[in-house]
Amino acid sequence: MGIQLPEDLRDIMEMVGVDWPDIDEDQLTDTAREYREFAEELRDTIRDANKACSNVLAGRSKGLAVDAFRQRWGKVSGQDMKHLADAMDLLAGAMDTGAGYVTTCKVAVIADLSAAAAAVAGGLIGAIFTGGLSALLGAAAALALKMAVREAIDLLVSQLIDIAVEKIEGEILAKLEGLFDDTTSSQGHDKNGTLLPEGLDSVGQDLWIEFAEFADAIDQLGKEQGKLHDKKKNFKDKRSKRSLVTKKDDRFAKFGAAIDKAEDKVEATAHSMHKEIEKNVTGLDKTKRSNDETDKHVKGEVDACSPGKKDDDGKDVPMYLLSKDGTVQQLLPDGTLKDVDKKDASGIHDLLESDGKAWRPDSRAEKKEVGVQDDETKVVKSSRVDPYKDPLGQATQLARYANNDYETKHNYAAGRYIDPSDKNKELILIGRSDRGMHSERVIGYSLIHKGKQDGLDEVFTERAPCQRRNSRCDAWLAKHFGADTKVTDAVPYDQLNGNREEGNALHKAYVDKLKTAHGR
Question: Does pTM surpass 0.85?
Answer without folding.
Answer: no
